[in-house]
Amino acid sequence: ANMAHGTPHSRFTQLIDAALAAGTLTAIATGGALLGLGWREGEAGRVFRLAGRGLLERVGVASSAAPLTSVALGYLHHLVIATGWGVLLALLVLPWRGVTRVTAALLVSAGYAMLALWVLPSTLRIGYAVTATPPGVVVIGAAVAVALLSSVWIAVGEGYDSPRGAAEV
User: Fold this and answer.
1) pTM for the full model?
2) pLDDT bracket for residue 63 (50, 70, 90)
3) Distant-in-sequence, close-in-space partners of 125: CB < 8 Å, separation ≥ 6
4) Residues 112-138 as b or e (16 or more Cβ within 10 Å = b)
């Protein structure tokens, strides 16, 4: 019984903590990318405003009557969706080790980009409908990859080890 790896419960807790950190990093990295896409169009909050407007119109509210509400709603949508994707993708990546973990991070980022481009409805996409085109998806996919690779680095630094770790020692 190798106690260095902790109990299964603490390993699970470490995995969840690492996945939540990845979700936070994903929200930050993709938020920055979305601000960049907006700045390129001349308005930093453009993506959030358009996402909020789309969400308001889905529930039958005229977004022109509430421009600040649409930006706030778009930003909240971003926080929830980007964090959710970051956690989900991290749970696919973190159980792997070493170079395989890095490769998995790149593959799931590419997988997310393909899902966003061809499958996901706008409400489940980071950046809402604004990232429905290849240039937008590439920017977000790259930001997701950076976030996941950063979370891999943090997980290693924090001592998170995969469940397979005990068998490999």
Assistant:
1) 0.85
2) low
3) 81, 116, 131, 132
4) bbeebbeebebeebbbbbbbeeeebbe
